[in-house]
């Protein structure tokens, strides 16, 4: 019952403009944040439909103690969701008394609008588009298990394993209880869109991480070998941090910074569940972290995923119905912070490789930030060309921008994302990820010396299961 009360409180807060769905969900300190977030988003998406059904059925007139937002959540779960979870609390029998009338009103609404499916009742702008057809990506947490063991577990549950995907079309056509292994990441399983695994025992035990494929790329491309010291500059909510820890096999050190105490608390819970033991969390502004501090003298890898507009997030339209592109004023402020953070990261004296990423589609937060940081680095760093077969590249706003990666539901079947990999000039690129040295965006009068290429570990995909 706590789930439904919390969801109702978030919906009421959004209606009263007290914050965004994501901010209010984290503010509730609910144990299962993703479950709460999913329920609120779906209830919000069907809000107009639920209002019509509740009004036609006279539910609030008959049950005067039932508050409107809680009624909306409960009716969504009864008619459109998964049915009541757990006992349902004292409100379950109350709403169940009106079940027949509520179902009749939903059916009448479908007849009136000449539709047969629930989703056809949505307004055109709210209907599932490419973003809602993105597959469910599930990263196997190699700190606790391995891909083979996870696959065997799902097979025993009645899922049909289809092997490694060979194309995006394989992912696009997934249906029912079929699942695949991602063609790029050996620890990433792919299920049909809208597959809900929040209550799956492997997820709750930390063996699985529900993480979009694009969000898995930064850690994979950072590729720190076990024993490395890594900074995760803007770390919460922590999925990427746990991925880095898995690549390190918990050997080495991750310094994770974030300013939001509530998000850090949730992150600590996530990391503990995932079995991460090599991470030191700090409630601190990364810009205030001194590169000369002896604690970071061995840091050779930095993951920088700073605050951004979120314009590429799959759930953005659910959080802010009818939302348009971020204002120029907001973009200017965000890009200013992002550039300061990137330039600051590049001053760490032992840094060899950095991944910059955002879940934004805006050039101002992506290519422009990278270009300016490279120009300010006085030729010390260069862009690294990565994943040559990736279909969506950076916008051609400066020479070498095509070495950056972009992602979107339409082109890569993922959330909207941007990634750039920067490396210190004297370090050659990873043989497994790159083609040739990238542009420096600065004058270089001396010829480059050839260096032996060194292989960077991309991470283990088969650790013994636990």
Account of the 3D structure:
β3 (178-181) and β4 (188-191) form a beta hairpin. α1 (2-15) crosses α3 and α4 (47-57) packs across α6. The radius of gyration is 24 Å and the shape is globular. The protein is built from 18 helices and 13 strands. It is an alpha/beta fold and 466 residues long. The strands form 2 sheets. Strands 6, 7, 8, 9, 10, 11, 12 and 13 form an 8-stranded mixed sheet that branches.
SSE layout and pairings?
Elements: H1 2-15, H2 21-27, H3 33-45, H4 47-57, H5 59-62, H6 68-80, H7 91-96, H8 99-113, E1 136-140, H9 147-156, E2 160-164, H10 168-172, E3 178-181, E4 188-191, H11 201-204, E5 208-210, H12 213-222, E6 229-232, H13 239-248, E7 253-258, H14 261-273, E8 279-283, E9 299-304, H15 316-319, H16 328-345, E10 353-358, H17 367-376, E11 381-383, E12 405-407, H18 409-412, E13 417-424
Parallel strand pairs: 2-3, 6-7, 6-9, 7-8, 9-10
Antiparallel strand pairs: 1-4, 1-5, 3-4, 10-13, 11-13, 12-13
What are the main properties of this structure?
disordered C terminus, single chain, 13 strands, 466 residues, eight-stranded mixed β-sheet, five-stranded mixed β-sheet, alpha/beta
Rg estimate, integer Å: 24 Å
Low-pLDDT segments, ≥5 res: 428-436, 442-466
Mean of residue pLDDT values: 85
Number of strands: 13
Q: How would a crystallographer describe the biggest sheet?
A: 8 strands, mixed
Note the total helix count: 18
Q: SS-based structural class? A: alpha/beta
């Amino acid at each position: 019952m706590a789930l439904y009360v919390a969801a109702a409180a978030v919906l009421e807060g959004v209606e009263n403009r007290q914050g965004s769905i994501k901010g209010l969900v984290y503010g509730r300190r609910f144990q299962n944040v993703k479950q709460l977030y999913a329920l609120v988003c779906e209830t919000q998406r069907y809000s107009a439909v639920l209002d019509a059904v509740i009004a036609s059925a006279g539910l609030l007139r008959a049950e005067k103690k039932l508050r409107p937002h809680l009624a909306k959540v409960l009716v969504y779960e009864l008619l459109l969701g998964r049915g009541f979870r757990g006992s349902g609390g004292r409100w379950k029998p109350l709403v169940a008394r009106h079940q027949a009338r509520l179902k009749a009103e939903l059916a009448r609404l479908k007849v009136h609008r000449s539709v047969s499916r629930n989703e056809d009742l949505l307004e055109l702008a709210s209907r599932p588009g490419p973003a809602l057809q993105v597959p469910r990506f599930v990263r196997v947490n190699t700190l606790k298990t391995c891909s083979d063991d996870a696959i065997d577990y799902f097979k025993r549950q009645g899922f049909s394993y289809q092997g490694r995907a060979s194309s995006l079309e394989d992912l696009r056509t997934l249906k029912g209880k079929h699942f695949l292994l991602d063609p790029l990441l050996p620890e990433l399983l792919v299920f049909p869109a809208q597959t809900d695994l929040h209550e799956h025992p492997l997820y709750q035990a930390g063996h699985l991480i529900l993480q979009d494929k694009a969000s898995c790329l930064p850690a994979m491309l950072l590729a720190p070998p076990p024993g490395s010291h890594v900074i995760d500059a803007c770390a919460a909510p922590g999925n990427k941090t746990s991925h880095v820890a898995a690549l390190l096999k918990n050997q080495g050190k991750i310094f994770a910074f974030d300013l939001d105490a509530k998000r850090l608390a949730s992150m600590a819970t996530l990391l503990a569940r995932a079995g991460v033991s090599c991470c030191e969390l700090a409630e601190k502004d990364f810009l205030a972290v001194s590169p000369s501090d002896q604690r970071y003298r061995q840091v050779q890898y930095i993951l920088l995923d700073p605050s951004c507009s979120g314009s590429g997030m799959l759930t953005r339209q659910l959080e802010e119905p009818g939302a348009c592109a971020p204002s120029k004023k907001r973009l200017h402020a965000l890009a200013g912070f992002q550039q300061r953070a990137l330039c600051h990261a590049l001053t760490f004296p032992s840094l060899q490789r950095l991944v910059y990423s955002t879940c934004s589609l805006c050039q101002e937060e992506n290519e422009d930030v990278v270009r300016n940081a490279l120009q300010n680095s006085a030729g010390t760093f260069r862009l690294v060309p990565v994943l040559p077969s990736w279909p969506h590249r950076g916008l051609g706003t400066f020479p070498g921008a095509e070495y950056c990666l972009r992602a979107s539901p339409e082109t890569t079947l993922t959330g909207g994302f941007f990634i750039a990999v920067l490396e210190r000039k004297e370090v050659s690129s990873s043989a497994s990820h790159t083609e040739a040295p990238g542009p420096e965006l600065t004058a270089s009068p001396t010829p480059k010396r050839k260096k032996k290429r060194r292989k960077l570990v991309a991470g283990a995909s088969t650790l013994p299961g636990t």
